[in-house]
C-alpha cells in the first residue's frame, strides 16, 4: 500500500514527502507523534485512540474486536523509528517529533489532591498538579474527573475568609497559594452552576477577586478575570450576574485587562468576561463608563475568529444603551471597522456588525453623521452583497433595514433597485 503524502511548507518551497504507511495512525491517517498499542495489538496515535474511546467506542477501530482492556502501552520502538525517519528527512523541512511525556498515573493525581489538605504540602502539590495539567490533555481529563475545583476554591479563599492576623511570611505563603490556585482554575474553569451560584452569592469573595484585577502580576490579573468570567457565564441567575457586575471596580478591572497589549491571552480572556457582563442590561452602562467601547474598537483588528464574533456581539449589546451608542459613534474608527468586517470574518460576525451599525445609524442625535460615515466607508456595497449572500436571516433583515435607512444618501447609480429592499423588524440575537 503506498504511503501518504505530507506537505511541508518552508520559507522557500513546498516539498512533497512520502510517509511510510506504518508510521501513520489508522484513525487520523497522520504521522503518529505518540504511538501506543491497545490490547488487540494494533498501534494508534494516543490522542486519536483516546478520542475514539472517549466518544463511547469499545472496539478496536482496525480489527473491530472488543477492547477488553483500555490500557494504552507506549510503543517506544515505533516512536524511535519515526523520530529517526524525521531526522533523516530534516533537509525537507520535517521536524523531529519530541519525545512525549507519559500520562500521569491516576493514583498519583489522587495522592497530590489529598496533599492539598496538608498545610506543609499543599503549595508544592499545587505546583506539581499545574505542571501535570499542562503536560497533556489526558492529564487534564483525569483531573477534571476529580473534585479538583472544590479544593482549589477552598484554598483560594481560605486566607481571605480567615479573621486571624498573619505575619509577613504567612501572608507571602497564602499569596503564593492564591496565585497557584488561580492558575489551576484558569485551566479548569467552573462549569457547575451550583458552584458558580455559590461564589456569585458571596460579595466578599467577588470583591476579593476584583482586588486581584489590579495586581502587579499580569498573570494573576488575567487568571482572576478568567475565574470571574466562568462565574458570570455559569450562574443561572440574571440577578446574581448583575450583583457580580456591581462589585466596586470589577468592570473597570476587566476593561483594563482588555487593554493589556503584547499578551494575547489577556485579550481573549478580557473580551470573554466583558461579553458575559454585557449580557445583563444593568452592566452595560457601567461597561461604557469604564471605557469598554474604546478598548474594543482599538483592539478589534487583533481578535481571532471566535473572539471577533464575541467582540462584535459585545459592541451590539453596548449599542443598545444610549451611552454606548454615543461612545461608539464618537470613536473615529468604529464605523469604518464595522463596515470592513461585514462578510469578512463569519456569518455571525457579519450579523453583529450589521446590528451595531443599525443601532448607531438609528440614534436621534448622531445618527445622521454616522449614516454619512457609513456610506462614505462603502457600506452600501457591503449591504447589497450581504442581502444576496447565504448569511443568517437576521443579518439580511438588519441589512435591509439599513439599506432603506441609508437610501436618501446613496449615489444616483446605487438606488436603481432600491425598491427591492424592504424594511423589516430587527430580531434580538
Characterization of the model:
A hairpin with a 4-residue loop joins strand 1 (4-9) and strand 2. 38% of the residues are buried. 58% of the residues lie in helices and 5% in strands. It has 22 helices and five strands. Residues 1-15 and 412-429 have low confidence and may be disordered. It has helices at residues 46-54, 76-88, 106-114, 122-135, 137-144, 148-161, 168-187, 193-200, 203-211, 218-234, 238-245, 250-258, 264-278, 281-289, 292-299, 305-318, 322-329, 334-341, 347-362, 367-376, 379-387, 393-406, and strands at 4-9, 14-19, 35-37, 43-45, 73-74. It is mainly alpha-helical and 429 residues long. Helix 13 packs parallel to helix 16 (305-318). Functions as an E3 ubiquitin ligase.
Distance between the termini: 52 Å
| Overall helicity | 55-70%
Structural class, from secondary structure content?
mainly alpha
Strand runs, count:
5
Average pLDDT number? 86
What descriptors fit this protein?
U-box domain-containing protein; 429 residues; disordered N terminus; three-stranded antiparallel beta sheet; RING-Ubox_PUB; single chain; ARM-like; mainly alpha; globular; transferase; 5% strand
Amino acid at each position: 500500500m503506498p504511503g501518504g503524502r505530507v506537505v511541508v511548507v518552508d520559507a522557500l518551497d513546498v516539498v512533497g514527502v512520502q510517509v511510510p504507511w506504518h508510521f501513520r495512525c489508522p484513525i487520523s491517517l497522520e504521522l503518529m507523534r505518540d504511538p501506543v498499542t491497545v490490547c488487540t495489538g494494533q498501534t494508534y496515535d494516543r490522542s486519536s485512540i483516546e478520542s475514539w474511546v472517549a466518544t463511547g467506542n469499545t472496539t478496536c477501530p482496525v480489527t473491530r474486536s472488543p477492547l477488553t482492556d483500555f490500557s494504552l502501552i507506549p510503543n517506544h520502538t515505533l516512536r524511535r523509528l519515526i523520530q529517526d525517519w524525521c531526522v533523516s528527512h530534516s533537509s525537507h523541512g520535517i521536524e523531529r517529533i519530541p519525545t512525549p511525556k507519559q500520562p500521569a498515573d491516576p493514583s498519583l493525581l489522587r495522592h497530590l489532591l489529598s496533599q492539598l489538605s496538608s498545610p506543609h504540602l499543599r503549595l508544592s502539590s499545587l505546583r506539581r498538579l499545574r505542571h501535570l495539567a499542562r503536560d497533556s490533555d489526558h492529564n487534564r481529563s483525569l483531573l477534571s474527573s476529580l473534585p479538583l475545583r472544590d479544593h482549589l476554591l477552598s484554598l483560594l479563599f481560605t486566607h481571605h475568609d480567615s479573621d486571624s492576623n498573619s505575619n509577613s511570611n504567612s501572608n507571602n505563603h497564602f499569596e503564593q497559594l492564591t496565585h497557584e490556585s488561580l492558575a489551576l482554575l484558569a485551566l479548569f474553569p467552573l462549569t457547575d452552576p451550583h458552584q458558580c451560584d455559590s461564589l456569585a452569592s458571596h460579595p466578599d469573595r467577588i470583591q476579593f477577586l476584583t482586588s486581584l484585577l489590579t495586581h502587579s502580576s499580569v498573570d494573576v490579573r488575567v487568571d482572576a478575570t478568567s475565574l470571574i468570567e466562568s462565574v458570570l457565564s455559569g450562574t443561572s441567575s440574571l440577578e446574581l450576574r448583575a450583583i457580580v457586575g456591581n462589585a466596586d471596580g470589577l468592570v473597570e478591572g476587566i476593561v483594563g485587562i482588555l487593554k493589556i497589549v503584547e499578551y494575547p491571552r489577556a485579550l481573549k480572556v478580557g473580551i470573554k468576561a466583558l461579553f458575559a457582563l454585557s449580557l445583563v442590561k444593568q452592566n452595560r452602562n457601567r461597561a461604557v463608563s469604564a471605557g469598554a467601547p474604546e478598548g474594543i474598537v482599538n483592539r478589534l483588528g487583533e481578535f481571532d475568529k471566535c473572539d471577533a464574533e464575541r467582540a462584535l456581539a459585545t459592541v451590539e449589546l453596548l449599542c443598545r444603551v444610549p451611552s454606548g451608542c454615543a461612545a461608539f459613534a464618537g470613536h473615529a474608527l468604529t464605523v469604518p471597522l464595522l463596515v470592513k468586517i461585514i462578510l469578512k470574518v463569519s456569518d455571525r460576525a457579519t450579523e453583529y456588525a450589521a446590528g451595531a451599525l443599525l443601532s448607531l445609524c438609528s440614534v436621534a442625535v448622531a445618527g445622521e453623521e454616522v449614516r454619512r460615515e457609513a456610506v462614505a466607508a462603502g457600506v452600501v456595497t457591503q449591504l447589497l452583497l450581504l442581502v444576496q449572500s447565504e448569511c443568517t436571516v437576521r443579518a439580511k433583515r438588519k441589512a435591509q433595514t439599513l439599506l432603506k435607512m441609508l437610501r436618501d444618501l446613496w449615489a444616483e447609480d446605487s438606488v436603481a433597485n432600491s425598491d427591492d429592499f424592504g424594511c423589516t423588524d430587527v430580531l434580538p440575537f
